Amino acid sequence: MKETPLSNCERRFLLRAIEEKKRLDGRQTYDYRNIKISFGTDYGCCIVELGKTRVLGQVSCELVSPKLNRATEGILFFNLELSQMAAPAFEPGRQSDLLVKLNRLLERCLRNSKCIDTESLCVVAGEKVWQIRVDLHLLNHDGNIIDAASIAAIVALCHFRRPDVSVQGDEITLYALEERDPVPLSIHHMPICISFAFFQQGTYLLVDPNEREERVMDGLLVIAMNKHREICTIQSSGGIMLLQDQVLRCSKIAGVKVAEITELIQKALENDKRVRKEGGKFGFAESIANQRITAFKMEKAPVDTSDVEEKAEEIIAEADPPSEAVSKPVLWTPGTAQIGEGIESSWGDLEEEEDEDEGGSDDVTILDSVKMETEDQNVGDHITDDTPIVLSDSEEDEIIILEPGENPKKTRIQANNSKQEKASSKKAIRKKKKKKKAAKILLF
Amino acid sequence: MMAASQTSASVPRVARTMLGQVVLPGEELLLPESAGPGTEGSAEQTLRLGSVVRPRARVVCGPGLRRCGDRLLVTKCGRLRHKEPGGSGGGGGVYWVDSQQKRYVPVKGDHVIGIVTAKSGDLFKVDVGGSEPASLSYLAFEGATKRNRPNVQVGDLIYGQFVVANKDMEPEMVCIDSSGRANGMGVIGQDGLLFKVTLGLIRKLLAPECEIIQEIGKLYPLEIVFGMNGRIWVKARTIQQTLILANVLEACEHMTTEQRKQIFSRLSES
Question: Locate the K Homology domain: which residues (chain B) (predicted)?
């Protein structure tokens, strides 16, 4: 799949933000993203997170015959892989330019700096040596792969234990992990890569660029250094001309950053060692926290019922008196009268709206009562609309239901629910008012 | 006894009882109609489906579900959701799975933010984050004619709508509605910041009366565009404010309501 292109507006925004000394994630110019190191259950397995960039490191070992020209030295092998899991633009099984560049830089950083004592990996000179293989997998790509990969590689190597071997005469014994404690590799120093991104022909400098900053940068300078401030490798890419004091300044920053990161690595290693010794829980399942998606939780909203009665009164007070109230009742037959002309029922569409509402609301009891309410009103409505009001005993009952004394109880539920219900209660009250009037008139 | 309990676990459950619960790909769900009185065997149910005319229980399969005979087959993991059909009660309605993913799959009618990647003849190629770029005709802008071409450059942001989005076919976008009006669509301004969030968060933000959006609107004056493809374009008065808004929106996904309220109150104070 093709890489998502960078839009003009992103590019412009990034460059303007860099000019204002602001970064997308709120970092300062020389800030690193958060580094998190977690170890797997096996020795030599770790995940390093640099912000959202994640690299999995795994070290394995094997007994092989040495190279002819170096009979007493073990073999170190590094391999970084960029899978599609990290970013859809990476193609599997293809050596892209970026991958070749990263692998080469990693080798220079770790092998050529002789940070691992390869002679200690020799078992029998000229016959058997240990081959140490470091596999690095990029799990997620959010820029600055090389720093994350170099940290992951050195952490995995520090964490790794190889099986113990003893040589007695011609006999070589390889001990399983249960028989003898495995031995750690001897590591002289820990080289760590630090990346600097340059913008606007070197005017602006950022440490630890993320993916989008990498896309708009003009040049990149990578310095590999150990905590003794020894530069292990240095590489500038992107065809940018750097001044001498720029490089010097970068190396000073790198020294500080490397010291911080080395301390962090040592702390993480000690922590893991202690947990293993104490028999506590370790491994990725324990150390990597789950991120919970909480944005979709529906909180139960408490309904405020403190001043409902006043509110209801207010609504009644504010409600306009019905305009088309006809004062003269028409007497059709003795005992049957009509007040006004039948108004079209507006309750039909209200019901539909309420159906849709149901999904969003969470309190069942309230909804139930509202439903009953509307049904009630429907019954009342029918009488006003379709049939002329019958002045009989049953009609008197109807009037009693709508007595103001009972009003608040009904409106309380409605006023609470939503605006829509409020409107409906308003309507209801209007109707009730009208009826009251009618009742008065009739009684008069 | 063991065997019985095992088979009972694999028996498809009624969709209505699973609402809001997590479903997994491969799971089969029964519709309430088909799980009626004759729940003994599925063969009987299919017979009934064929012979008895059902009174307008229209079921729509949303994202993450596929029809499989008279059942629903789950194709994504997530929570099962349901919406009653408007007006008529009873069965039917829309069922879908609320899943969490980042990869966008074009859907007809969706409003998305795309990036113009190429101009070729009378078509623009627009990257929308799907498996292939969408095509956008230069005539599909408000007021565009053969003579009067819209001013669109490669790398510009486009807010548009899908008119064609089929499987294995190039999707097609337009920036006008059915009456030829822009209706907010078209080229998005040159300033502002584009960033990506998960599709779930976008749906949440676009839900009517979303609290997050209402709270964010109170912070700073802002312009914001949400694309269903997980892209958000935001612009506030200054770069600092734009950055804050973008970071807050991104962080909202993993915050509880209380945490979010705290952060918003802290931001509005400063």
Answer: 192-239
| Helix/strand/coil for A311 | helix
CATH code: domain of residue A60: 3.30.230.70
Residue A217 domain boundaries = 25-283
CATH architecture of B193-269: 2-Layer Sandwich (3.30)
Taking Cα atoms as reference points, which of B225, B217, B206, B208 lies closest to residue B248?
B217
Task: Dump pLDDT digits (tens) for A372-420.
Answer: 444 444 444 444 444 444 444 444 444 444 445 444 444 444 444 445 5
Distance from CA of B65 to the nearest CA of A (A): 20
Tokens of A363: 């309190």
Mean pLDDT over each residue of chain B, to the nearest integer: 83
Give the three-class secondary structure for A227. coil
Contacts of A3 in chain B (CB under 8 A): none
The CATH number of domain B110-187 is 2.40.50.140: yes
Min Cα distance A356 → chain B (Å) is 7
Q: Bigger pLDDT: A437 or A97?
A: A97
Distance from CA of B176 to the nearest CA of A (A): 22
Residues 35-74 of B with CB under 8 A from A: none
Number of other CB atoms surrounding residue A348 within 10 Å: 10
Q: Determine the residue among A4, A6, A9, A22 to mutate to test chain B binding: the one whose Cβ has the most chain B Cβ atoms within 10 Å.
A: A9
For chains A and B, CB pairs below 8 A equal 91
Residue spans per domain, chain B: 12-31+57-99, 110-187, 193-269
Question: Is A144 contained in some domain?
Answer: yes
Give the position of tokens 């008279």: B70
Residue B231 has pLDDT above 90, yes or no: yes
Tell whether A131 is covered by a domain: yes
Q: Does B215 touch chain A (CB under 8 A)?
A: no
Residue of A nearest to B198 (CA): A293
Q: Please provide the average confidence, as pLDDT, over all residues in chain A.
A: 78
Using the predicted structure, report yes or no on whether residue A12 has a pLDDT greater than 70. yes
Q: How confident is the model at residue A432 (pLDDT cuts 50, 70, 90)?
A: low
Q: Which of A8, A26, A299 sits opposite B190 (nearest CB)?
A: A8
Q: Residues A126-159: pLDDT tens digits?
A: 888 999 999 999 999 999 999 999 999 999 999 9
Cα nearest neighbour of B252 on chain A? A295
Q: Which of A4, A13, A357 to mutate to test the interface with B (most CBs of B within 10 A)?
A: A13
User: Cβ contacts (< 8 Å) between B240 and chain A: which residues?
Assistant: 20, 22
B22–chain A Cβ distance below 8 A for any pair = no
Please report the pLDDT score of residue A431 as a whole number.
54
Nearest to A319 by CA among A438, A435, A440, A429: A429
**Percent of chain A predicted with pLDDT > 90:** 43
Say whether A7 and B157 touch across the interface (CB within 8 A): yes
Is the pLDDT at B252 greater than 70, yes or no? yes
Which of A13, A25, A292 is the closest to B247 by Cβ?
A25
Report ipTM (2 d.p.).
0.82
Q: How confident is the model over B127-148, as pLDDT tens digits?
A: 999 889 999 999 999 988 988 8
**Residue range B12-31+57-99 in CATH 3.40.47.10:** no
**Residue linked to tokens 């990290």:** A86
Say which of B200, B239, B243 has its CB closest to residue A293: B200
